[in-house]
Amino acid sequence: MSTHRYSSMHICMCQHFSTQTHSSPEGDMQGFAFTPFQYKQHIKKLKSAIAPKSLPKIPTSASESECPQILLDQILPADYSQLTQRKFSTPPVLTSTAQKPYSSSPNLPPQYLGMIISAILSLRYNIPRRASHILNPALNLLIKSSIPSSGGHRTPAFHIPQDLGTIFEHLQLEPAIQNYICCTQCFFLNDQPYFQCHNGPNDHDPPCTQSLGSFINSFEPRTQNTTNIKKRFVPTKHLIYQPFKNWLSRFLQWAGIMEIMHQHQQSQIPEGSPKCDIWHGLVWRCFTGTRNINDPPFMCIPGALAFSIYVNWLNEN
Predict the structure, then answer these.
(1) Could you read off the pLDDT of 70-110 as tens digits, one per residue?
(2) Whole-number Å distance between alpha carbons of 270 and 289
(3) Interval 203-227 mean pLDDT
(4) What is the tally of structural domains in the chain?
(5) What is the CA radius of gyration of the chain?
(6) Would you say the pTM of this structure is higher than 0.90?
(7) Do 208 and 164 belong together in one domain?
(8) Which helix (H) or strand (E) holds 11?
(9) Domain that holds residue 296
(10) Which of 31, 83, 220, 300 could hold 13 in an S-S bridge, CB 3.0 to 4.6 Å?
């Protein structure tokens, strides 16, 4: 392929073509070479593939209702179910008086109690997950040995997690980390390892085509005395992002966190510190000062939270 023709091609390194190679004037390179029209069609297929799908409808027929469906959220303590909600007017109050009785359902299996106890110990009392994996089967043995088995009782269909790891996944308690490749020209965040930025300001505008990284030689052992040299793509700028809603509920349930935030609000930031620009800034004064004549300050409203992030854009280190 000539150098002039290769310069007009778009190199895609998504998960479908990350293991493929293509011929270039410099030799075999990682990725798949598309023409501009083929690359645009490929991007449309990727976007349609990752589009959100509708959730399956829960069956409500009479035949399916004979086998009851029990969800884990229905028997969790009420304070933990409040933490999974996106909006609440006041901070959740974690008290033992608001818990639901675990023995209210006659179809409750014994393994439910062991998982609930293990999950509460891990979430509320910071029991390590490795210890919870040992504690969960031990609790199941104790509970099963103490509860007599019912003769003709029909076991319902339980769509529940079977260990602590799937409990975290079911309740979405594990913090989700998202990795992006940042374009240094238009600052678009690419979630796929593209070789060039495909972002355009509008649908009919050409893509940015800014290089998102470079290729380096990767040496892999092939036999005992020989090695295989491959090209590996290294992004120029990485961005690791964690959504705010994924860790806010875990943050609020820490013991004494509200008192710590209140003390931090009353503390004085010394002059010349990096936080001084935020603390004495005009935006932060809108939270600490009076908004209107008859309204109290924002931070005095029950349940109000304000977070700030200090970023030094001039120092890349």
Answers:
(1) 444 444 444 444 444 444 444 444 444 444 444 444 455 66
(2) 19
(3) 74
(4) 3
(5) 28
(6) no
(7) no
(8) strand 10-12
(9) 256-317
(10) 31
